[in-house]
Amino acid sequence: MKFLIVGLGNIGEEYQNTRHNIGFNILDALAGASNLVFDVNKRYGAVAEFKFKGRIFVLLKPSTYVNLSGNAVRYWMQKENIPLEQVLVLVDDLALPLGTIRVRGKGGDAGHNGLKHIEQLLETNAYARVRFGIGNEFGQGQQIDYVLGKWTADEWKILPERIDKVIEIIKSFGTVGLARTMNQFNNK
Q1: How would you write the pLDDT of the chain (188 residues) with one tens digit per residue?
Q2: HSE toward the beta carbon, residue 132, CA cutoff 13 A
Q3: pTM for this entry
Q4: Which residue numbers are catalytic?
Q5: Is CATH 3.90.226.10 the right assignment for the domain spanning 2-185?
Q6: Backbone angles phi, psi at 19, to 5 degrees
Q7: Segments making up each domain of the chain, as ranges
């Protein structure tokens, strides 16, 4: 059984360790803990395969910018023959306090251009996603700078534990399913 796990983020050194790239950070942590290396020469993204309890997780960091992520998601779903129910997207969320994690089986894009593009190309918003709260500590007109800004030293302190929690969510999604994963993790 195969699952597609998509971490949203922007390519390029200038975007490394920014709030918008939390999806990349999560997949990098999972790959690092499992001694996996991403193949950066794949179409539409960097890809690695993670095996856990008889399941194969195709980890995808799209090589498109966030607002064109749907291209990579659609391509890899088709290439690997992965149904929509076995897709999980990891995304930053301004509306959630820093470090808050929410698992959802569907929903709106909440103004996130990556989710908007995925929904547009898949013609549905009924795909699972993990929303990772990045907070909204910015002044009026500063949203883009905040989202594309680097994590502060204080923010970095809480990230490892929260990233580990999302890795648990990924494993749970593939082994016990979306409903049980939401029940287990959304109240914590």
Answers
A1: 999 999 999 998 999 999 999 999 999 999 999 999 999 889 999 999 999 999 999 999 999 888 899 999 999 999 999 999 999 999 999 999 999 999 999 998 888 889 999 999 999 999 999 999 998 888 788 888 888 899 999 999 999 999 999 999 999 999 999 999 999 999 75
A2: 29
A3: 0.94
A4: 20
A5: no
A6: -60, -35
A7: 2-185
